[in-house]
Design a protein that fits this description.
heterodimer; A: alpha+beta; DNA polymerase, domain 1; 2 domains; five-stranded mixed β-sheet; 5 strands; about 30% helix; B: alpha+beta; Uridine Diphospho-n-acetylenolpyruvylglucosamine Reductase, domain 2; 3 domains; five-stranded antiparallel β-sheet; three-stranded parallel β-sheet; about 35% helix; about 25% strand
């Protein structure tokens, strides 16, 4: 089936099988390997990308469901020359250890800060509660998001 | 790697279009809403539809509004939308209680109310919540629409009254005076399915319980409800003792099974305790902050 979608501002047209999952389209067809393929069961959140205005778990969305929609992946978080404050926060606060959960964590953090520019630590924890850091580095992830909130986070 | 088997795909653009597609494909098709239950089941081959009818484009079915004395919820409403709806929380606090503990924020962004109900998992939180509120389901089919009470909607585990050529389009909740509601859930970890959960709605006249609705999930309750406990409460004064007794009656009429989430006797305990707690919460909310 032929689908058209915008990923990080660029339009893509692809002919895909209806059973293809969005995460595999992004990684295998479009070469956008920033989004990670983790548990495959919508538990871990490594595959989180935005579909239009909200983050979703792309291992549980068919690529054809994104037809006509906008997708944002971690590759589209910065503008090419400067990093998003969320990315700076993760760098400043050692918010990534092995880095596997990081793209999904950052996309959820950006969504949270757009809606709640000054969240509490509890609100950050609630926002990322569907995402797993296998290094158990949650403390620094929370610090990174709070750092981003204080340093231009709502941009 | 888990991937679904080969499947055909149709994108429905309206309720009428979806019904046409359903009539064409019959039981070979499954309706695809958020897909957060269906797609995992397709990956495991627990579901193997030949055709998916994607209704995500029917944005007419995404709404939570007040019409007269009814709260109306379109079935494509995302869990997150229901959780954010002020009018839903104002009239039925149970909905926000339940939505807050369904899966996680990211899953709630895409999973839908109608999808959860039609999936008909025996541990579904919303099935208990709508049973407690005594909602009505609106189902569209080739011959028009029909209405079914929430308690007649589920015919068994993973089974509903929705026929292969039909589509659940709306849930209607009657708003009655003196109402209060609440939801209590115990799960093994944040975002998990319940080990046991109870929802309660009460309608008070003074301090008398004019009517009560009790919904239970994951504990083997008939129709996700505790009809005997409701009957006991009707016309009684809302004392702590009466609410505790209602919890006992609810548990006596449940038939939980031991599974990986917990042993049957613990689930019976939860049915009793969570029913009582949900009733206490519902009564406190019905009385309002001044009481």
């Amino acid at each position: 089936m032929k689908i058209t979608m915008t990923v990080n501002g660029a339009e893509y047209v692809r002919d895909v099988e209806p059973r293809l999952l969005l995460i595999h389209l992004l990684r295998d067809e479009l070469g956008l390997t920033g989004s990670h393929w983790g548990c495959d069961t919508s538990n871990c959140g490594a595959c989180v990308v935005w579909l239009d205005e909200t983050p979703v778990k792309s291992c549980t969305v068919l690529a054809v469901m994104a037809d006509g929609r906008r997708v944002l992946t971690v590759e589209g978080l910065g503008n090419g020359t400067s990093l998003d404050p969320v990315q700076l926060g993760f760098a400043q606060c050692h918010g990534l250890q092995c880095g596997f959960c990081t793209p999904g964590m950052m996309l959820t953090a950006r969504w949270l800060l757009n809606r709640h520019p000054d969240p509490s630590a509890t609100e950050v924890r609630e926002a990322i509660s569907g995402q797993i850091c296998r290094c158990t580095g949650y403390e620094n992830i929370v610090r990174a998001v709070l750092w981003a909130a204080k340093n231009g986070g709502s941009e | 790697m888990q991937v679904p088997a080969q499947v055909e795909y149709e994108k429905a653009t309206s309720v009428e279009h979806a019904l046409t597609l359903l009539a064409r494909y019959g039981s070979a098709a499954r309706v695809l809403a958020g897909g957060h239950s269906l797609i995992p089941m397709m990956k495991l081959r627990l579901a193997q539809p030949e055709v998916l009818i994607d209704i995500n484009g029917i944005t007419d079915l995404c709404y939570v509004n007040l019409t007269g004395a009814q709260l109306r919820i379109g079935t494509l409403t995302r869990h997150a939308q229901l959780l954010e709806s002020q009018i839903a929380g104002e009239h039925f606090a149970i909905l926000h209680d339940a939505e807050r503990v369904i899966a996680d924020p990211i899953v709630r962004n895409w999973g839908t109310v109608g999808g959860s109900l039609c999936q008909a998992d025996p541990s579904e939180d919303l099935s208990a919540a709508f049973a407690a509120m005594k909602g009505t389901m609106v189902i569209h089919g080739p011959d028009g629409s029909r209405e079914v009470s929430a308690r007649e909607f589920h015919t068994g585990p993973y089974e509903t009254v929705v026929g292969p050529a039909e589509l659940l389009t709306e849930i209607k909740l009657p708003i009655r005076p003196g109402g209060g509601s609440g939801y209590q859930k115990v799960s093994r970890r944040t975002g998990d399915w319940p080990v046991g959960a109870a929802g309660a709605a009460v309608w008070l006249t003074g301090d008398t319980i004019a009517d009560a609705g009790i919904g239970l999930t994951a504990v083997g309750a008939r129709n996700f409800a505790a009809a005997e406990a409701e009957e006991y409460l009707r016309g009684r004064t809302a004392t702590q003792e009466a609410l505790a007794r209602a919890g006992e009656i609810a548990a006596e009429n449940c038939h939980p099974v031991t599974d990986q989430r917990g042993p049957a006797d613990y689930k019976s305990h939860l049915a009793r305790e969570l029913t009582t707690r949900a009733l206490r919460l519902a009564v406190a909310r019905a009385r309002g902050p001044a009481a």
